[in-house]
Amino acid sequence: MDMVRGIVTKPILFAYIPFRNVLMRLVCQYTGWLTVMEPFPDSNDKQPRKKTEPSLATKIWGGCMYVLTYLASRRTYQLQGGLRHLPVPSLRPTIDKYVESLRPICSEVEMQEIQQGSQQFLSLTGGYVLQTLLVLRSWVVDNYVSDWWGMYVYLSSRDTLLINSNYYGLDYGLEWPTDCQLSRAALLTQTIAKWWDFLEDETVEPLKLRGFIPMCMDQ
């Protein structure tokens, strides 16, 4: 009986997970929930921000997202396949923002050269060809920037990693565990290794905003 149940259950789960991921990606396209604000409980501002009531669309979206995430397991990367891909911004607005961001630090002569170069880039087919290739790349990868960042920014950079790139951690909370540096280093190393085991075994629950909005755990 257990064998028959396993034969029936596994194909259903195998088909359900991709279907759920597709639904989650469609639901994640909605961004109206970002405008719903709540006042800070301990705010000392003279004019604290007012609470914004969620719209009907936001409530429907929240219900769908809650059901999809509630039915998922608690494994660390269980919801990764359903997250929204990093969107590719439009070419012309990106060029316009690039030009405006350089205006405070460039002279008039430099700005003229930058504007001419930007217009040439937009007038030629090269800019839109690169944009099309980038859009196609975004369809087949979760993040079209991450591997380039790791290869050309993180690994190729000659800057010091300790203060520019690497994360850090503390070996104490409310009190010092010991004054022996060797013991503290051993404790920190053991804690990091233990946390790495948690990630490898996927025993860390996915981070969710408000208890049901999944966040990326691939950090």
TrEMBL record:
Keywords, sorted A to Z: Acyltransferase, Transferase
GO function terms (MF aspect): carnitine O-palmitoyltransferase activity
GO CC term (a single one): mitochondrion
Single GO biological process annotation from the record: carnitine metabolic process
Domain Choline/carnitine acyltransferase residue range list: 86-219
PANTHER family: CARNITINE O-ACYLTRANSFERASE, CARNITINE O-PALMITOYLTRANSFERASE
Similarity section: Belongs to the carnitine/choline acetyltransferase family.
Protein name according to UniProt: Choline/carnitine acyltransferase domain-containing protein
Organism: Sphaeroforma arctica JP610
